[in-house]
Structures are given as C-alpha cells and as structure tokens.
Description:
Shape: globular
Strand content: 15-25%
CATH architecture of the largest domain: 3-Layer(aba) Sandwich
CATH class of the largest domain: Alpha Beta
Low-confidence stretches: none
Strand order of the largest sheet: 2-16-9-1-8-6-7
Helix content: 25-40%
Structural class: alpha/beta
Radius of gyration: 21 Å
Largest sheet: 7 strands, mixed
Distance between the termini: 14 Å
Mean pLDDT: 96
Amino acid sequence: MPDITDNLLPGLYTSKLEGLDLGEGAIHPAYDGLSILNLPASLCHWLGASGPPHPRLDIPELDAMVEGIKQVIVVLIDAVSHDRFRGWIAGMAKELDAESDRCLLAPLTSVVPSTTSSALTTIWTGRSPAEHGILGYEIFLKEYGLVANMITHAPMAFEGPGGSLYNAGFQPETALPVPMLGKYLTSADVEGHAFLHYSIGRSGLSRMHYAGVEKHMFSGLADLWIGVRDLAQSSLENPRLIWVYYGAVDGVSHRYGPNSERARGEFITFIQAMLQNFIGDLSPVTRRQTLLLILTDHGQIPTARDPRYELHMHPDLVGSLHLLPTGENRLLYLYPRPGRVKQVIEYFEHTWPQCFNLVPSEKALKMGLFGPGTPAMEARDRLGDLIAVSQGDAYLWWAAKENPLLGRHGGLSPEEMLVPLMAVRLG
C-alpha cells in the first residue's frame, strides 16, 4: 500500500466549512470521512460491532487491509503533527516503511479544538466535540458554577491533586451525554483493552473514557510493549481491540517546543521500544491476524514567549469580560460583559492586528466547527459569546503564573490540525 499523503492533502487544505472565516491557512475539520471522528465507526465495523452514527473513514485502501484480521492494535502518540511523524519515522524500520506493500500512511484532521481532552473523548465515544460537550482544556461548567480543567477534573486555577470536581458532585463515569465506545464493543463480544501509564490510569479522564474496557497500567516502555505483546499473542476467542496511549511527547513538546531534539528523541525512543519489544517478537500467527494502527490526536505549533500575549498586561480587556477566557490558549472562548462585545472585538483588532479571527460562538456551533450531530445541552454555555481563532503563532496566556510553554495546540494551523494515520499489516 502506498503513502497516500499527496493524494489527500490538497483536499484537506482546500475543504472549508461554508460560511465560516477562520483565517488564512486554517485547516477546517474533515468530519465527513477524513477526521479522527471517523475512526471509531471504522474500528467497530472491522471488528463486527455496531458503531456510532458518523461516517467511517473514507480511505478505501485502508478497508482493503483488514481482510483476515482478528485484532486491531491502536497506538496513539499524543501531539505529533503529520509532517513531523512522516519525517521522524522515515527509515526507522522496514515494517514502518510507508512505501511498502504492507503499510499505508494517510493524513487526517483532528477535531476542533485540537486538544487531548476533546480529541480522546471523540475517539472513545465516536461523537463530535459538539455532541459530547468536552470542548477544550478549560471549560465553563455552568451546572457547577466554575471553570474546570478537563484533563485534571479540578477547578482551572487549582494547583493541588486532580479530581476535586468530585467534591462538587461531578462523576466522570456519567458526565458525558453520549455512550462510550466500550458499550459498542461489549455488545458485540469484542474484547477491549487499554494500556495507560500508571500516573493516569485511574484519573478522571480515564474513568470517563474506558467503561467496559479492561485497563492495563504500565510504568516504562519495556513494561508497556512486553505487556502488549503478551496480550496480543494470547488466545483469541473473540475479536479484540487493544489501545495504547503515550503522552510523553506532548509534555516534552510543550516545554521545549515540538521541533526540539527532546521531542524527536522521545518519539524515536518510543518507536524503537515498540520495534524491539513488540513487533520483533511476534509469532507468525499473531502477525497474520493483527492490524496495527499508529496515529496522533493533534499536533503542536512552536510559540515563543511574548509578553504581548499575557492577559495581565491588558486590564482594559479583562474589565470587559465576565470571566477570564476559557478553552485553549490558541482557541479562546470569550464572555463579554453586557454591551461590551463591540469593545472586545475592537480591542483584539487594535492590540493584536491579524493575530486573531473573532467568530460568534453560536455561528461556529451552527456551521459545524465543533462537528456534526445534535449539540450537547451544555455546549452553548461552554463556548461563550465569541471565539478567538489564533493566526500564525499567536496565543493568549491568562493563568496567574509564569508562562512556561514553547509549544501549544488547540488551534487550526496545519501543524495542529493535520495528523497521521499509519496502518500496518504485520504478516
């Protein structure tokens, strides 16, 4: 199978949601068949389960690879853009050669916002961010009267351990208004397994996503890949889905930048461990019945620290807002005070010319920026009145602490929105 990147990329660059000006160069999500939203329906189809309502991946070459498979192993590496993945993995191993007849590489889009909490919830529900309501890293939960971090499940400014939303009555297992992927799997007698680092295996986000799925905790890469190998080679009485999530590249990219030597090194170390402790030791029988998928949830864009983008430098803007911005540093949800909408728009245009496109939230939701389907009841309140879409490498930092980040995501640049999907028949 070929590397079909060059066939699909032009369409992803030119396809636009009607009626939405998101700025020059913005990648609009391809929810109709070339987005991570479409992966869950394909997984269910391949494994013989009924699936979520949105279209399957529109990649005929991929459907042709699944004949005879009994298990699918999905490896998600957090925060690697399509171009970085394509460059970093080139030449690493014959099994991962995108030009070989057993491998396929295609570009997809992430969802909006291009961030982990939204993207992983989309994969584990098969529903769009509009439908599941997890619309960013930090969102206003009107029903609890606070802005919450949707990774840690704690109030936005909280520095203590995660999970304190539970004290307000928040229950991650029942917080989503849509069914989880595990429900589709178990109803069809498909085994579901998830490999997670021990530091997040019992987190609120994991409790939210993995109902009906057996969780396996790992401490290091050898522990991870030997565990995946042993499970993959165990007796297969029913179809099986194995999920692997690896988040270290994202953390390193935030701190040192996505183009840094550390980010590339973290990625290469992960792939080498997979080759040595998993792929290299698989039996011929397991190889023949296994499809390996490697993908990412979003990318990152380098962002230099710049005092112009620190909100404490702009008290007049803060005074025009009910709340500090929510959402993402590169896709902001704004809550102007009554009568201040025009003033907020003019402040952005005067202070940061050509750095942000401001879009009415109601329009963005209606026109499908956050995906198809009926929006969650809470979605409208969580998006504020205006959405500020970053242009170039612009962002806004509002946390009451030093800005440590050299890489960010959440926006609509190609580096954030275009992600890889590599499919490998191992035997």
